[in-house]
Write the structure tokens for this entry.
Amino acid sequence: MANLGEIYLNGEGVAVDRELGISWLTKAAERGQNDAQYLLGQGLITNQQQAAGEQWIKKSAEAGNKKAIQYLTEHQ
């Protein structure tokens, strides 16, 4: 789910479909996949949903995701 979401979010081999990408990432993130939580947070921030995006990134950081931790360190 996370991989599929990332593919659509970034347009890797398919047309970019941010809505579909966020949908797949949300499914994975809600199941506790911390990479998906981070990617979902990034996708939401890109879609001008700053607060929701930061919440997912914080959740990912709490689970130990290094990219999420770095993001929070740089943006606080």
Summary: DSSP finds five helices and no strands in the chain. The longest helix spans residues 18-30. The two ends are 30 Å apart (CA to CA). The chain has one domain: 2-74.
